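To: structure subgroup
Subject: Chain for Friday's discussion

All,

I'm putting the inputs and outputs inline so they're searchable in the archive.
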Amino acid sequence: MTRITAILAAAMWASLAGCAGAPPAASPSTRAELAPTGALRVAVFTGNPVIGSRDKASGRVTGTTATLGRALAAQAGVPADIREYTAVAKLMDDAKTGAWDVAVVAVDPARRNVIDYAPPHIVVDLTYLVAPGAPIASAADADRAGVRIAAARGAATTLFLERTLKNATVVTAENEPAAFALLREGKTQAYAQNRFLLLGLADSLPGARVVDDRFSVAELALALPKGRPAALGYVSAFVESAKRSGTVARAIGDAGLRGVAVAPAAR
């Protein structure tokens, strides 16, 4: 986003967010930028249950992103087209070709050359699931020579660790299940992801445990492919309204998420 378009998007967001209640229906020009195919194509990464999941019984894509995506589409006056992604790296690659209109990913500076972010709507701890018997008692303990940490390729967790770890080695896998498999098979001593996901996986691996502290906090935000300033302003206003109205909190509750909170209001 250029400096001029960033200023325009910020001004639109401030104007809309300052209004009482929900944002107004999208103007024809904003709607065309938000949903250029006529439907809002919502990319849902189902490898992270904080973002989304697929119901095994019905096959329906569910979770916080699907809920908010459908609400955003209804507010804008367009149908929602929910599109599942099982690998975040593929989702990010598709942002470059405009294959989707809105998605939820963790905020990371390495992604800003591809996407623009609305204000975060969810926050969750990033931490480690430790293999049975591994001598890692805290997040700091994991950053030692010889320690191998599993993480999914392209995930914000992976990008953060690759920038900040000084001694441990990040071992990347194609997706989250494959990263967990590295830990389960004894190929790594830890697996890095958000606390909710790791707590669920710990129940399936006897002797594994999630450390009590964290190495960072993930801020999850609705993201758009770059170059859509009017749509970004509209989505930003929608997010702030959804946080104030309790829509985000209800989406978290309906998804049964532990250790996940609504992000503070944007400043």
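Points worth raising on Friday:
DSSP finds nine helices and twelve strands in the chain.
The first strand starts at residue 40 and ends at 45.

D.
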